[in-house]
Amino acid sequence: MDYRRQLVEESHCGHLEMPPREERCMRKPCGDWRLGDWGDCTVTCGEGLQIRYVECTFGQQRQDESFCDIRSKPETELRCNRGTCLTPEDDFKIAVITSNSVTETSHWRVGGWSSCSSTCGTGWERRRVVCRDEKGDSKACDLKLKPDEFRSCKSGPCPSWTAENWANCSATACGKSGLQTRRVLCSMPTGQALAASNCDARAKPQEVQVCSAP
């Protein structure tokens, strides 16, 4: 372009440094989700929650969540089950002793088994086991004969993540970077779709990945 701002042949500008034709740009920062460890279950029996922090980061700095893909944000809460809460009133039926001629009256007494701690897969069941005699609690029982307080249990198959095929890369120019997306669903082995909260968020496959045009 000459002093009259008219286009001319490049040969007329050979004595000048040519400005770059391309430069990097960013339409929107691409942040990453950073995950904390799951906390302990909020209860010691029954159903509770495990909680972790999930924050959006970019350049090792915490950012507003708009910097990250909110669709791929991992779960911050996970349901947990620690088995049925046991109560002494409900767990035991102590036989009435009608004769005082019985010797060695201390015996192990057991309550009923709780429900399985897991809603699917393998878990455990729990019951109360105490030593009692005709007067109540006792310490005279043989520990070698103490019945089990826990046993394993199974509650059927667990749901799992199913990942569909990756979509085409969003990059259009050769050598340029873009993104690929795919759907990741929580489902039962039968194919029944479930809410994402029913699957383990820690094992969820990626829904977005960086790609480049061929």
From TrEMBL:
Q: Which GO terms describe its cellular component?
A: extracellular region
Q: Does the keyword Lipid metabolism apply?
A: no
So which residues are the signal peptide here?
A: none
The UniProt entry, under SMART domains, shows: TSP1
- Where mainly located? secreted
Alphabetical list of SUPFAM superfamilies matching this protein: TSP-1 type 1 repeat
Q: Does the keyword Secreted apply?
A: yes
Q: Which UniProt keywords apply?
A: Repeat, Secreted, Signal
Location in or out of the cell: Secreted
UniProt-recorded name of the protein? ADAMTS cysteine-rich domain-containing protein
Originating organism? Elysia chlorotica (Eastern emerald elysia)
